[in-house]
Amino acid sequence: MLWWLQISIKDIIDILLLAVCLYYTYVTLRYSGSRSLFMGIVTFIILWLLISQVLQMRLMGALLDKFVNIGFLLLVIIFQDEVRKILVTIGSAQRWRKIRGLFRDRGEQARVEAAYVAPVVLACMNMARKKTGALIAVQGNMDLTPYQHAGERFLASVNARLIEAIFFKNSPLHDGAMIIAGEKICAAGCILPVASNPDLNKDLGLRHRSALGLSQKTDAKVIIVSEERGTISLAYRGEIIVDITADELRELLSAE
User: Fold this and answer.
1) pLDDT tens digit string along 75-96?
2) Do residues 170 and 192 lie in contact, with contact meaning Cβ atoms separated by under 8 Å?
């Protein structure tokens, strides 16, 4: 026991685990437009603990206890997408892939880059030079199959010429998004969720908002080629990096 605080090691571990859970929840909701609601919930929990546990107000404490019991289920329903994302983040194999990457030889890394990263970078650079708009979602740990249903589903190797042909201005799939999973092109002409955050830059077009929308709901890396400016951007985990070079795009796609 830490006698001057009357706190045991178990209590310290308990507090640290709670802090980690709150941190991951806050990070998940940070760019989804739910940050204010999250802060309101945290404030309510603090008031509940103060009234029910510290001040021990019986009437208010009993009412708040009942509300908390029901409120937990309501929160799961309201934040079902965010809860799913948190659980996938916790249970993902990304950390194991990072450890495995330490022991992966350069030949394997070069093979992955040649099969998927290099053709995507080449196609994006060519389309940016021609000012051909494009939206490409690269699947991470979270399955993107639900977003494939609205588009044309097929299975093809990642090829720069094929990507450019799909996003050619007269192509019927030009305005939709392409989804790449498992180093294969799985679908094109897909519709992605549009970000609804009111704090977004008003200059962002529909492609950028769709990329941000998907990156807020999944761990996919979404590439945007601007038809107006001929620039390349990448959205990931609710953030967007604009006007990136070929080397930067290659590095971002290769990163675990």
Assistant:
1) 667 666 666 666 655 555 455 4
2) no
Domains of the chain: 9-91 (no CATH), 99-254 (3.40.1700.10)
* Cα-based angle 164, 166, 171 (whole degrees, multiple of 5): 115
Q: How far is CA 55 from CA 21, 61, 74, in A?
A: 26, 9, 26
| Angle, in degrees to the nearest 10, between helices 9-29 and 80-91 | 120
pLDDT digit string, tens, across residues 169-211: 888 888 899 999 988 899 999 999 888 765 666 777 889 999 9
pLDDT tens-place string over residues 202-232: 777 889 999 999 988 888 999 999 998 999 9
Write out the DSSP string of 6-54.
Answer: TB-HHHHHHHHHHHHHHHHHHHHHTTTT-HHHHHHHHHHHHHHHIIIII
Angstrom distance (rounded) from CA 185 to CA 142: 16
DSSP string, 104-138: --HHHHHHHIIIIIHHHHHHHHHHHHHT--EEEEE
Q: Which two tokens stand for residue 92?
A: 């993902």
In 10 A of CB 42, how many CB atoms?
13
Structure confidence by residue, pLDDT tens digits, 29-63: 655 555 566 667 777 777 767 776 667 777 776 77
CA distance 223 to 235: 7
